[in-house]
Request: fold
Amino acid sequence: MDKIFKINPKDNVAIALDDIKAGESFELDGAPLTARQDISRGHKIALCPIDKGACVVKYGYPIGTASESIQTGDWVHVHNVKTRLGDLLEYTYTPSFYTLPQAEQKTFQGYIRQNGKAGIRNEVWIIPTVGCVNAIAKAIEDASQKFCTPQIDGIFSYSHPYGCSQMGEDHINTQKALCGLIQHPNAGAVLVVALGCENNTVEQMKARLGEYDPQRVKFIVCQEHEDEIADGVEMVRQLCRYASQFKRESCPASMLTVGLKCGGSDGLSGVTANPLVGAFSDLLVARGGTSILTEVPEMFGAETILMNRCKDEKTFEKTVGLINHFKQYFIDRHQSIDSNPSPGNKAGGITTLEDKSLGCIQKGGYATVNDVLIYGQPVSQKGLNLLQAPGNDLVASLATAISGANLVLFTTGRGTPFGCPVPTVKISSNTPLSLHKAAWIDFNAGYLIEGTPMEKLSQTFFDYVLEVASGRRTKSENFDKRDLAIFKDGVTL
Reply:
């Protein structure tokens, strides 16, 4: 295996594929190269002199400027590179499309719901309208396990701290998130548990939810019941009877919706795991499926690539609004736009937000951007969608789920046990991580730098995801990790 990798012919840095010692020599593009310092796996080495103030180029795009003169063979990182990001920008639509090759349809074994959507799990969910009844929801879950049948994949309650003392957009976001879960096709049936005096009233929730099947969705207001747990358990018994009617059947891959997320990234995430997920997304879109790319702050510095892939000028303008809205969100709170990457990202070799963003958007592959969604908006367009949500792992993953993602593909170079209410597939950027945290990692993208061609590994990965969609459990499901993190912005009363 080579020890360094140049991503794009325009790059003036390469990636260390393994730890490099000072004095080690290599040949790249026919030219000799000697490391001047120790360089850890995932970090960058200069391929030529880079003057102070000149652009550092990776992925074929600037990831920052040199804060001091850099010599050939130098370690290139936060000590000698600074971001180029600044204030709000004006953009010009310059369309650039890539035609995806046609792909033969594949299938998975899913659950066809009465509204025509497909679920990949047949679970019964217990969802509180307010954090005050989290313990009640959990008690109902525990007492209801006896009603689980072979046709039901599990009975689960979810907890969150919201639903009261919220104002404006926060109040609406909580309702959107909870309604997105209530309507989710992975849930065969849902019990909504309310307290009775919260801001987020049952009447408001029903108005936000719209039409629903009372056999599939039931509500209980705890203050109106002498024994809310016993009565809630009886409702779950009825819901389990309803959910048990569904059975797995053959569904085309075009019915699958997948969320795309990265977290705990390292310098190899944009070389292996994220491009692998991008290749998967293209294979799914080519078959008529849907993918959702979010983490808007991790598009900063790479946003024009996505903008120029927008299907039309209206979608381009929505993408401009998506980017500048989130930049303004930072500015209004007197925070730096380039506050990312995290300490763990930097330790893994990511230097600037542009560096992280250019790696992050690899998860979107090459497909045309068909729509842009606000937080909590259900996906309605097939193909690649962009979604308004922050970079936070828990918040962003849930955001894709409440917009309709059946599962989340989650790439990582550092490792995490996290999972959201839908199956969360962990893809490691490197083989050592997949071996070290085998109980966390579902699929290893590190094979890409060990000689496995992308075409072969992406097909293997596509088939693996279809297995998950057909019932194969993810590592986070085995951990029973189902975190519910709703986006919060404003005042708490």
Notes: Residues 4-82 form a domain with the Archaeosine Trna-guanine Transglycosylase; Chain: A, domain 4 fold (CATH 2.30.130.110).
